[in-house]
Design goal:
With about 500 residues, this protein is an alpha/beta fold. The protein has two domains: about 260 residues, no CATH class; about 150 residues, Glycogen Phosphorylase B (Rossmann fold, 3-Layer(aba) Sandwich). Helices cover about 40% and strands about 10% of the residues. It has 18 helices and eleven strands. The protein has a six-stranded parallel beta sheet. A five-stranded parallel beta sheet has the order 8-7-9-10-11, sandwiched between helices. Helix 13 links the parallel strand 9 and strand 10. Belongs to the glycosyltransferase 47 family. It comes from Daucus carota subsp. sativus. This is Exostosin GT47 domain-containing protein. Its main location: Golgi. Pfam families: Exostosin_GT47 (PF03016).
């Protein structure tokens, strides 16, 4: 090359070598600390040590420092005057409309119900859970059932916490009824169902019904803007027909009619909330360590004989019981069963989630927090937060007919490629935070998503409330939530 060799200068060679080594070091550091090697905590959450995810731990602290009560100063000498409250609401909404101050924040008024509906029931649970070994008719521990349906506690505890301690900004507790978009009824229906004698429970249900339906806000809307936690399908059953206009917090819809009567529940007015998972979160470190240990193709542990839609379990057992690389076990939700299920799910690629006595079960959410891809076989199942989350990214849906066809299910599961399975597990890691109840409630946790879903229902709630207020008695134009003609005689006019 004319002019001599360009790299002949020793000092220049040393400089080039130094730069090359520096670039190589930087590249190695980048590869080592890249998101592929370090877990992304925003996608693969670990449990925050300053947050309570345990119902028992959170409840103990809650009962040791009861939040102070707030006096209701929205209605004074005219506490029963529904028309006055309606006028106050109209003024507030008109002001918001014309000052362009409408926002996505949900304003919630929390009723200060007598302690027998709230604190006394929590104290009853706390004082008995260690000693009680009672089982339900299907073999499940009573107190474990209460825990997995404890959504009423998690929502209420967050709402009444001091504002300085709350992290959720899309829901605000208000102390005047005219400022409220929604009214929260803090009655522990599941605890009362399981821990009180039958007649005592029914009596308390009737008292709660009367207390709520005597409120001016209830009579103004017919209960349409009231939130009623009835997450266990047996709870509040004797009187809930009188509160069918309210927003029910449910585990599923069960359109078969086994648990809810026609016209009582609908996706338009009600909200599906996840069970509290029975198993511990398999966090980023756990997911990484368990990846190579997932040698079982399909896992199930639970009661093999169920009623209603759950009868498919027996058929699935007959189809899958002798198949290679499949684990099907009889088991219950006690401590031994919990440990076995946690170990089994963390060693499996897919986890079977068939219908039980109801279309849903806590098993689905146990699988999600365990990093095990759910195989959902429940034709009537409705899923929580489906307006926000796409479950097709984390679960496999199979019809009951296909599932019991000889050889079909296993052939289908084995058809998934390694890349598809990896992508679904990545999405499971991202989604797990949406099913971890906690105190304080965390952004993007189930409490947060619940209020986001409820915010989307507000306009429709106001529509049905105002139509019910202005339509004449016996009008045929009254619509129920499923838009079938409804008799207006049950609606109460403003007085």
């Amino acid at each position: 090359m004319a002019g001599g060799r360009p790299y002949g200068n020793p000092r220049l060679r040393s400089l080039i070598l130094l730069v090359s080594l520096s670039l190589l070091s930087i590249s190695l550091l980048f590869l080592f600390f890249s998101p592929k090697s370090l877990p992304n905590l925003s996608q693969n959450p670990s449990l925050n040590p300053t947050v309570d995810y345990s119902f028992l731990s959170s409840l103990q602290k809650f009962l040791s420092s009861k939040p102070r009560r707030h006096r209701d100063d929205s209605i004074t000498s005219a506490a029963s005057d529904v028309r006055r409250l309606d006028e106050l609401v109209w003024r507030r909404e008109t002001e918001r409309l014309y000052t362009n101050s409408i926002s996505s924040v949900v304003n919630v008024y929390v009723y200060e119900m007598p302690d027998k509906f709230t604190y006394d029931l929590l104290e009853l649970f706390w004082s008995t859970y260690k000693e009680t070994v009672n089982l339900t008719s299907n073999g499940s521990p009573v107190h474990r059932l209460i825990e997995q349906h404890s959504i009423d506690y998690w929502l209420w505890a967050d709402l009444i916490a001091p504002e300085s301690q709350r992290l959720l900004k899309n829901v605000v507790r208000v102390y005047r009824q005219e400022d409220a978009d929604l009214f929260y009824i803090p009655f522990f229906t599941t605890i009362s169902y399981f821990l009180l004698e039958k007649q005592q429970c029914k009596s308390l249900y009737r008292e709660a019904l009367k207390w709520v339906t005597d409120q001016p806000a209830w009579n103004r809307s017919g209960g349409r803007d009231h939130i009623l936690p009835v997450h266990h399908p047996w709870s509040f059953k004797s009187v809930r027909k009188y509160m069918k206009n309210a927003i029910w917090l449910l585990p599923d819809m069960d359109s078969t009619g086994n648990w809810y009567k026609p016209g009582q529940v609908s996706l338009e007015k009600d909200l599906i909330l996840p069970y509290v998972a029975n198993l511990e979160l398999c966090d980023a470190k756990c997911l990484s360590e368990s990846e190579s240990k997932r040698s079982t193709l399909l896992y199930f542990r639970g009661r093999l004989k169920r009623n209603a839609g759950g009868k498919i379990r027996a058929k699935l057992v007959a189809e899958l019981n002798r198949a290679e690389n499949i684990v099907i076990e009889e088991g219950t939700a006690g401590e031994v069963g919990k440990a076995a299920a946690q170990q089994g799910m963390r060693r499996s690629v897919f986890c079977l989630s068939p219908a039980g006595d109801t279309p849903s079960s806590a098993r689905l959410f146990d699988a999600i927090v365990s990093g095990c891809i759910p195989v959902i076989i429940s034709d009537e199942l409705e899923l929580p937060f489906e307006g926000i989350l796409d479950y097709r990214k984390i679960a496999v849906f199979v019809s009951s007919n296909d599932a019991v066809e000889p050889g079909w299910l296993l052939t289908y599961l084995r058809s998934f490629s390694a890349a598809q399975l990896k992508e679904m597990r990545i999405n499971l890691a991202k989604y797990s935070r949406h099913f971890l109840y906690s105190h304080p409630a965390q952004p993007l946790g189930p409490e947060d998503l619940a209020w986001r879903m409820l915010s989307g229902k507000l306009v429709n709630i106001k529509l049905h409330t105002r139509r019910s207020q202005r339509l004449v008695k016996e009008s045929r134009s009254v619509c129920s939530c499923d838009c079938k003609p409804a008799n207006f005689t049950s609606a109460r006019p403003l007085s």
